[in-house]
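Entry 14. Structure prediction run on the chain below.
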Amino acid sequence: IKVLPVAQGAPAEGFVVFQEPRVDPERVSAIGARSIVERIEALGTLPIDLTGLREDRTEVVRVDLTEWDGIVTDPIEVEVFYDLEKIEDRTLAKRPIRISPRSGTQLLPDSLDLVVRGPAARLGEIPESRIRLSLNVEPIDSPGEFSYLAEVMEGNRIRFYRQLSDGVTEEVALPDLEGAVQNLPDQVVVVDFSPKVFRIVRGGN
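Output returned:
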C-alpha cells in the first residue's frame, strides 16, 4: 500500500519544498482483516512539522493508522526526505514579444526584461533563449496607434490595458488582450518586468 507523507507548517520565508518528498519504502504491507485491508487505497504518515525549515530534512515517522483499527503495517515506520531550496530572483533580459496576428501590426518596444522568482535549482534550468511573451492583439480591430500599460497577472500572464491620451486609464481591460510568458519551468513565476508602457500600431485593411 502506497504511503503518502503528511506535512504541517511552512518552511522559513524565502524557502520552498523543491520537489515532491521521497518516501522509503514507498509501499508497506498492511496486516489485518481482509475486509478492512481491501478498503485501504493509501496510508498517510503522522504529521511532519516543516515550520521554519531552512535546510533539507530527513524524518523517520510512523504510518498513521488512526482510521484503521486492528491494522498494523510492515514496516511500521518510513523515512521521508524533504528537499528545500532557497527562493531567488533572476532577470531575463530582452525577451521577445511575439504578437498575433502579425500582419499589419507593430508592437513597440518588441521585447521586455522579465524578473522571475523560484527555487535556485529551477532558475538554473531556465532555457533563456526559449522564453518569450505571446500576445494576441486581434481584439484591436481598428487602425491606429494605441498606448497601453501592462501589469503582471497570476499564471505568468501579463495584462495590457488602454492608456487614454489625457493620462486617464480605463477601468476595464480589453477582452483577451493578455500575454502569456512561455516555457518557464514549474515553480518559476514572473514577478516584474520592464518597460511598463507599450505602443501598438494597427494598419488599415
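Residues 34-37 form the longest helix (4 residues).
Filed with the rest of this week's runs.
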